[in-house]
Amino acid sequence: xxxxxxxxxxxxxxxxxxxxxxxxxxxxxxxxxxxxxxxxxxxxxxxxxxxxxxxxxxxxxxxxxxxxxxxxxxxxxxxxxxxxxxxxxxxxxxxxxxxxx
Amino acid sequence: xxxxxxxxxxxxxxxxxxxxxxxxxxxxxxxxxxxxxxxxxxxxxxxxxxxxxxxxxxxxxxxxxxxxxxxxxxxxxxxxxxxxxxxxxxxxxxxxxxxxxxxxxxxxxxxxxxxxxxxxxxxxxxxxxxxxxxxxxxxxxxxxxxxxxxxxxxxxxxxxxxxxxxxxxxxxxxxxxxxxxxxxxxxxxxxxxxxxxxxxxxxxxxxxxxxxxxxxxxxxxxxxxxxxxxxxxxxxxx
Lengths: 101, 238
Known about the structure:
The complex is a heterodimer. Chain A has helices spanning 2-23, 31-49, 60-75, 80-100. Chain A is mainly alpha-helical. Chain A has a domain at 50-100. Chain B is mainly α. Chain B has 2 domains: 10-176, no CATH class; 184-238, no CATH class. Chain B is built from 12 helices and no strands. Chain B has helices spanning 10-37, 42-52, 55-66, 71-82, 84-93, 102-108, 114-122, 129-153, 159-166, 168-183, 185-203, 212-230. Chain B starts with 9 loop residues before the first helix and ends in an 8-residue tail after the last helix. The interface between A and B is large, with 75 and 102 residues.
């Protein structure tokens, strides 16, 4: 039973990823479709990050602190790892401080 | 360097994938812990991660397995949550160079995750198969290892550390979208529009019943379509 559930899960997820990759083999020329696809990654990542990031930690305040640090460092063109680790550290430290208050 | 050649180095891909793999450790660790807590054995948790390689879909999946849900419900849930991959896959298909034959498309498409997609599409040039295999390696290992560790260790990590690690993935997303949004007004507007729609869907009664995966598709399609109509890009692969 469980294994069949996993097979269904994995099969559906794979088909969703594989079919477009196999079917869209030619370069799309239409400028609107090209522009649409150019914007998709930014729109997807923006929508996935906000507002979800605010609820990703155990306190709204620590999440806001982590978000602010991440945005400031990203504006300074810091690497992915630097931004991610700094956000984690900020959350850790701010939750430590919150517990002291 | 010739701007018309593609990026096709396994090493470069592997390096780009390391931060993703590290980020996945914490998320899959949580998944492993949760899977064992719902009553699944460790090896099943690892098997799910090795065959699915997706966060939201897996978290929903173990809930459905625990509830003994019908297979059709499992299929539909995965379809809605993961449909965003189809958008990413179409977008990536436009960035692949001539080394992507059918067999490589069949294999590498398995590794398209939110973060892999984000990094691959952030490359200035087209990408080759070697780069793609390199990029997928660390995330796949991190996702599998994290699940195994989380499932095996279950509760040794203090809660404060879990909480701090949860923000890692979002920090990465911010690092990916902020620099291009600062340099290009149209990208900035598209991001802000997507975020605005995302907040509306999250905080409006009734609309907040829409599942997370489906909400992301709505945001992405609406904001990207608005961007394409208002600011069509002449040379997308600049």
